[in-house]
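Notes from hallway chat w/ T.B., transcribed later so I don't forget. T.B. wanted the structure written out for a chain they're using in a teaching module, and asked if we could keep both sequence and structure tokens in one place. Agreed to drop them here.
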Amino acid sequence: MSSSHPMNRLIQGDVGSGKTAVAMGAMLIAARNGCQAAMMAPTEILAEQHLRNIRPLLEEHGVRVDLLTGSRPAREKEAVRERIASGETGVVVGTHALIQEGVRFARLGLSVIDEQHRFGVRQRAALSEKGASPDVLVMTATPIPRTLTLTVYGDLDVSIIDELPPGRKPVRTHWKRSSEKPSVYEGVRKLLNDGRQAYVVCPLVEESEKLQVRAATELAAHLAQHVFPEFKIGLLHGQMASDAKDEVMGRFRSGALHVLVATTVIEVGVDVPNAAVMVIEDADRFGLAQLHQLRGRVGRGGHASFCVLVADPKSPDGEERMRVLCDTNDGFKIAEEDLRLRGPGDFYGVQQSGLPPLRIADVLRDTTILREARGDAFALLGKDPRLARPEHRALRELVVSKRRTVDLMTAA
């Protein structure tokens, strides 16, 4: 952050490794140097959790921290927007509401994107455009293939947190066929009887959010009536009002609910240390990054924790995804497998899967030589930043020509 050019850095660390603590340090630095910081999270639940963690620590140092999300009352949102515009707000935490037209910063110096794989390329860029070349810090537990590729090509600097806090135990992951579901739920019952709690993630329904909500509601009713009638079952989905979500999460945190049936709204940010098992229905419908994130909701306390993938994959790729999750908890290994299975996306555009049209190199095979080429390119620019020397004239012309023909999007 103290260098002469804007930071564009990815911080990668598994769930619970301390990425938010690093972001808080960066935001405090920005505020102490007369700038504002904005942290954008993909869901209101996560934004509100960040606020609970960040506000007490930063306000202790005299930094005002505000929340801006779409569901807050109109008068409250307007008051927050005014404080952001005047510079009274030092740090603002929010959702997509931060990138709307009415939000203007007095002096945005740091843009933090949490769980960056949940945002589109243009959404991530839109937050940075609220300031004059602010530092950018993106955080993820599982880099999407596009980001992994951009890392190889040098658009992003990378910091890796490769340790978990003391006492954390790795989550044991098992893949079961749907015919084995009765024994899966019997295993969950044993953990519930031991005083632990459980998540059940309902299948992904692509057609519409209404169908997704209906699927979750039906699954919760089925579990309450036929599977776990002796336990309290809760339901959480994206269509619920903020107050209702908060109430359900509060009851689950306190132990008043034993099982939480949820959609992927719990994919990021939900932290309940007593939850020791997660069952993901039709797990083959989810991508690797999503599955890894969902699994990260358990294993946050000192208890042995489990993730059970219930799936009957209909393709070799689907089976391979199940095996990858069972074999490793390492976020970067999972990202590399995702890269191998899906392709790295479009370097200069907004597409995030499929192989790019490179004439010679193979991104999957030629990582070593690509890193060497990156090093050579940086060395060349270090000696001749504007490519002004006669021997670099042809290269400069190619760069200028390429810039005219692409939609240059490199916002992590």
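Follow-up for T.B.: The chain is about 40% helix and 15% strand. Might be a good example for the class.
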